[in-house]
Design brief:
By secondary structure, the protein is α+β, with helices and mostly antiparallel strands. It contains 3 helices and 11 strands; from the N terminus they run E-E-E-E-H-E-E-E-E-E-E-H-H-E.
Length: 168
Amino acid sequence: MPTKGLAKTAGHDLYTKEGTNIPARGQAIVGTGIAVGLPYNTYGRIASRSSLAVKHRLTTTAQVIDTDYRGEVKVVLTNLGDQPYRVEKGDRIAQLIIKKIDNRELQEVAQLEDTERGYQGFRSCKDTMDQKGKGQSAKPQMEINEISARAFGQFYQRGEGTGILRWN
């Protein structure tokens, strides 16, 4: 049964139902022996335990539990370390965090409204602030192509442009 260490803790600890080996630089699917019924407009997020990440280089992947899923909650543990790791029955392996979501449909649009950050990606907040002080504009021109929501979900790109979706 998931537990919380303290009343104000964000996540419920998840435990293994059986021992499992996680190979070095590999992964394993670890059962918890529980199923959850989540409220509408929420999802369950499986988060790593910081102690396992720091001490043993174990992290979680495949982290979403949809509100309509009724099967066993399983955790994909990934071992980023050079040594195999074994979890034993009853070990705390991850956290379950219940989060609210917005279930509105996506709408396709020709362009998005301008923002200060514009089209810049990784580390762009710092770069935008640096350029702002120098009086430079950081916004490159970009051609927008139409893209379906299904294709967007598959990270589809057409030609040189990128399709854009916006929340309704």
